[in-house]
Structures are given as C-alpha cells and as structure tokens.
Amino acid sequence: MSSVAEGKSQRRTNRLSTRNIPPALVYEMWSGKPVYYQGYRDVLSGKKTIEEVMSCSDLQGVLVYLLGLYIGNTINRKKYLISSNESGLHLAHNDNLGNDLVIFEKEKVGKLKGKFFDIPPKVVIEVDIKADVSEFEGKLDGYLIQKSQKLIEFGVDKVLWVITSAQKVYVIDRNDPTWYVVNWSENISVLDDCILNIKQLLDDEEITH
C-alpha cells in the first residue's frame, strides 16, 4: 500500500513541477509539447540560474559568430539573408524551433515582421544541442535526428549540425537519402560555391580550444 501511495504522490509531484516550470525554460515547442533547455532541472532545484542554462559556451558562441561571418562574406548577400542568435522558426500551430544560424532566400522572406520566421530556410546550421533530451528515445542522437527530420519535412534543403566535443559535423541533405557524419576538418558544401572547413576557420583565427 505504501509503495502505491508513494507512486501516486510522486506522479502528483511531477505534474505539479511541470506546471510550475517557468516559460523562459522552454527552448522549443514540438506539436504543443515543450522541450526545455538542457539543465532546466538544475534551475528548478536552485543549482543554476535561468541565464546560466540559456547561455552557450565560449566555443559555441565564438563558432556561431565565425560561421555567420565567414558564410556572410562568401555567399551572395543580395540573394540570401542570414539570421542567427537562436532565430525562431514557426513550423505550424504550437510547433516552433530555435536555430543557431539560418540562411534564407531573400525574395521568399520579404519584409521582416518582428515575429518568428514562417518559411523554410535553405540551410540550417546548429552548434551542439541546447535542449534537454531526456525524454527522447536515443537521447542526443534521437533529438538531433528528429529535429533534423522536422526541418527537412518543413522544406529546409540542408542541415549541418556541428558537435564541438567530437569535432564532427552531421550533414543532412533533403536531396540525399544518406545522412552522414564527417570530421570538421573536412570541406563541407554549404550553399552554391560556399565551402566550409571548420578546423581551418578556427585555425585561421588562431583560436585554440
């Protein structure tokens, strides 16, 4: 009897804690279901602040900046628009994703409205995973694959996912059924004539990590 009562009590506690999670800890919405920031439980327990779990690491921040700078200086900016800083992408009702760096065709974007983008980018580039993946089958890989699939189904042409700890890049192309992983020292086609080599990019800036 006591174990049953404890189980019911735990479920009530879980429901209560979920209801009390601050909206600021919601990283994305997947078909109405919140996906929280990695480390959100540490905020609820008082071990970290909201700002700590929402912020990126030094390498993540520098790399996203360098990627935007390099790509912006390489592609045709009269034709393409780059957005960064966790740009919101609205896929459908209660279905919103955050992205580190996105490249749009300008003619499809039109006038900026001060809202989430609601059209598919040509390219999405992500650096590491900021979401809590504990509820995803396969954890990190499961989240990465499912989010990439959502983006491809929305109409994104290519997803590049950089994993800094492993120095690898997942290359996901809507026109290629083979999703593959390469070392970030390899040349990777981004868009048109834009070729990216992350190791070379960091070496050129004399950045150690």
The oligomeric state of the chains shown is single chain
What share of residues are in beta strands? 25-35%
Secondary structure class reads alpha+beta
| CATH-defined superfamily of the largest domain | tt1808, chain A
Helix content: 25-40%
Series of H and E elements: HEEHHHEEHEHEEEEEH
Q: Outline, from the CA principal axes?
A: globular
Assign the CATH class of the largest domain.
Alpha Beta
What is the rounded distance between the termini?
55 Å
Keywords: Endonuclease, Hydrolase, Nuclease
Protein name: Uma2 family endonuclease
InterPro entries: Nuclease_put_TT1808
GO molecular function, one term: endonuclease activity
